[in-house]
Amino acid sequence: MYNSSDGTVQGVKDGTGSGLTWDNVAAGTGYYAIATGAAPTNCTSAHSNAVSVVEVANPAALSLTGSSICTSVTGTGTITSSTSVIGVKYQLYNSSDGTVQGVKDGTGSGLT
CA–CA separation, 44 vs 59, rounded Å? Predict the structure, then answer.
């Protein structure tokens, strides 16, 4: 794979009969690939279409509020946010990094 300055970005990948993936590519524009055939001719293809890796900002962290519950009624607490962003998915985690309930889609309003 090459960058827009025709510099090699990563080493050669062998064809597999399926799609190829290049990982850990820095943000940039004009990345392309060239195919090279087998010996003895080692003929090369034209450049592939050029693509970009675009860096986007991380979504903002939510500000959460927890509730108080009675010890005799466990599992009835609520956690809310005052806002969320449409197109962003939110997952609540506990202090052990375990997931709590399912993923919630941002609505543009608070989540419960």
Answer: 42
Closest CA to 9 of 28, 18, 56: 28
What pTM does this model have?
A: 0.59
The amino acid occupying position 77 is: G
Q: What is the mean pLDDT of residues 84-112?
A: 95
∠83-86-88 over CA atoms, to 5°?
90
DSSP 3-state assignment of 100?
Answer: strand
Contact 62, 84 (CB under 8 A): yes
pLDDT in tens, 25-43: 999 999 999 999 988 999 9
Residues β-bridged to residue 44: 36
Q: Which of 105, 109, 106, 104 is nearest to 93 (CA)?
A: 104
What is the rounded CA–CA span in Å between residue 108 and residue 86?
5
Retrieve residue 91's tokens.
């997952």
